[in-house]
Write a structure and sequence with these properties.
Keywords: Membrane, Transmembrane, Transmembrane helix. This protein is an all-alpha fold. The protein has three helices and no strands. The chain is elongated and about 55 Å long.
Length: 104
C-alpha cells in the first residue's frame, strides 16, 4: 500500500517534469514563430522535441505500470519514473541554458 502510494507520487512528479520540458519547447516555438527573425529559435526547439517526447513517453509508461497490483511493478515504475523524470529535468535545464546562451 505505502509502496504503491510512493510510486504514484514519484511517477506523477516525473510526468509533470517531462510535461514541463515539452511545454517549455512548445511555448518557445510559439513565441519564436511570432517574432521576426525567430526562426533559428524555432528550429532549435524543433530539434529538442524528440528528447522531450521520449522523456514524456517513459514517464507515462511508468505511470501505466504503476496501475498494476504487484509490489514489483510499483518498484519498477518508481525506478522508471525517477529515471525519466531526472532525465527530463536535466534536458529542460540544458535546453534553457543553451537557449539563453544563444547556442542554437
Amino acid at each position: 500500500m505505502v509502496i504503491g502510494l510512493v510510486a504514484l507520487l514519484v511517477t506523477l512528479g516525473a510526468v509533470i517534469a517531462a510535461g514541463g520540458h515539452a511545454g517549455y519547447l512548445a511555448m518557445l516555438t510559439s513565441a519564436a514563430k511570432k517574432r521576426p527573425g525567430g526562426q533559428p529559435a524555432a528550429d532549435f526547439a524543433k530539434k529538442r522535441y524528440p528528447v522531450a517526447g521520449v522523456g514524456l513517453g517513459v514517464t507515462l509508461l511508468a505511470l501505466l505500470i504503476n496501475t498494476g497490483d504487484s509490489v514489483g511493478a510499483d518498484v519498477f515504475a518508481t525506478l522508471l519514473g525517477l529515471g525519466g523524470g531526472a532525465g527530463s529535468l536535466k534536458a529542460l535545464q540544458t535546453s534553457q541554458s543553451r537557449f539563453r546562451k544563444g547556442e542554437f
